[in-house]
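#struct-pred

JT: dropping the chains for the assembly here, can someone run the whole complex?
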Amino acid sequence: MNSAPTDTSPATTSVGERPREVVAIRGLAKTYGTGATQVGAVNGIDLTVRSGELLLIMGPSGSGKTTLLLMLGALLRPTAGTIRVRRSDGSDLELTSAPEKKLPQVRAHTFGFIFQDYALLDALSAEENVAVACNIAGRTGGSARERARMLLERVGLAHRAAARPSQMSGGEQQRVAVARALANDPPVILADEPTANLDAARGRDLARLLRRLADEDGRAVVIVSHDDRLREVADRVLWLEDGLLKELAAMVIDPVCGMAVERSGPHVDLHGQSQWFCSEACASEFRAHPGSYPSGGSAHDHGSPDLPRG
Amino acid sequence: MFAERRRAVLAVLGVAASLMLVLLLRGIFAGAIERVTYYIRTSPADVFVSQQGVRTMHMSSSVVSPTAVEQLSGVPGVAWAAGIDFASGSISGPGGRQLSYVLGYDSITGHGGPTRMAAGRAPGIGEVVLDEQAADQLGVGVGDIMTVLGLPLRVVGLSTGGTSITNTTAFVDTRQFERLRGSAHEAHGQGPSYVLVRADAGVSADALVERIEDDVPGLTVQTREEFAASEARVVTDMSADLLRLMSTVGLLIALAVIALGLMSSTLNRIRDFAVLKALGASTARLVATVASQVLWTVGLAAASATVLATALSTVLSTLAPSVQINVTIGSSVQTAVSALLIGLLAALWPLRRVASIDPATAFRESR
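RK: done, full complex below.
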């Protein structure tokens, strides 16, 4: 899993608009601790995200997905590397060199955040939750409330504007969170496991909604998730492991443990097909009970950039 | 916090209750001062003359020369001068016992006597005029016999305004006072305790004080206002520590209520603050939000406390007439300012906590 960093371009573009580079990451690294306890969470990543692109980053727990998202969202300073973001007004901003006190303003005007647990303010109604984000972005009073109502209507929740989070389903709460993420009209939306707390139907609804944000608005949507359902709507799927990104299209699934692995480790040839494994242990397990695992799983392709949209 | 009405109402009421306690304590003290100085403030005399070095009646003993009244009457600008005798001691009736100022005055001229009579007439030998509230508490009325400084006297009149939370006022004729003085074994000499001086029309009290000091040396001469202020000061000095202690306790309770309310609401909302920071809210904005929450809490609590204390003072004064509670605008403003300062003090920890929240923690699932 220690292949060279991958930098790929999106396969799709927004309708009627030439995709432009919105996020450009070069040599991004983050290490925690020092000396013997030093851990590299992200180890020199290059990545470009374009307008209208929905990028899905998958990977095992602890692989550095959230660290990457935090650095991309100007919430965590990298140890090395650069992150350049093109803002709505067309200007470029180098996040890693921006002064600390400017970062809240950068976040308020550049990124929309979607959290795994929605992170709505319990004491406020749906409309107020969105309006607060409008306030932070600079809109106040009636203008903020009007935009909040418009965004709730867009996510199909105009009729729930007065409801509090405790009165809404998980799917509704996450749609309010999406509306809130749009409050500042951001060029980039960052979503952390947005479907993790949703059932299958609501997860698909949300996936389609995020897809629409990329298609209709030309926003760059970056999702980190374990959820396979999101691959259906993604333009690209990248695999993050050991702090490095790989194209999932070039990887296969270990039939024993289900992990995405490269075609460079332990493997077993069976009936003319090759099976690849994360470790000798999985390979040995497969050799002992080949009938217990899907044999047709050789060289599974995952996260093809040509997958149809949801 | 204000989006959660129940929590906000509880916080405001908690602070209001403690501020009301402070306001009532200060009001009771102010009322007591007003009652204690009632006799002086409502006296028709413009100048009070006492033994050299004596500036008050409360906790004091004063005797002036037997010729002082005559000397003072001869000072230009003096309309009249009247000696009064003063002692403090116990009076009692069927309803109980009470501390009292006993004042002896010339009941023929009426100078130095009660300012206003609610019933009856001026006292003669063997008689006393008592404050109506004290009469009520002691269970005596006009025509009844009561004990004044150890001697039985008949109540012939009721005066007003002289009973405070600590003592009351009784008036007797100067001739009767001589007998009482003997009864109390006080050897003050033959002169009166104080001399009350009325200025002629067009003569200011200050000017008269200067003339008396020049013409009749060896006395302490004060205007009515100065004398009342000295009297209030000695009472204040005696009670200041207690008042300060009680006020401090009240304000500390307010501090605790504000601090606990803010701490709990801040701790409950740490994730919310982190989310708001992640969305781009600046630390200054969030700090301002918490600070404005304190200002609103204290402001609403101070207003509520003033209204409640005023209402309660009316009720308490009706139930216990000897308790006068003066809730003044000055006292309310002073209490509100104190509360504001302790509110900001209480907000320091939550403000520091909010300022130090890492917005990245918004991505940690908390529910």
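JT: nice. Chain A has a mean pLDDT of 85. The radius of gyration of chain A is 21 Å.
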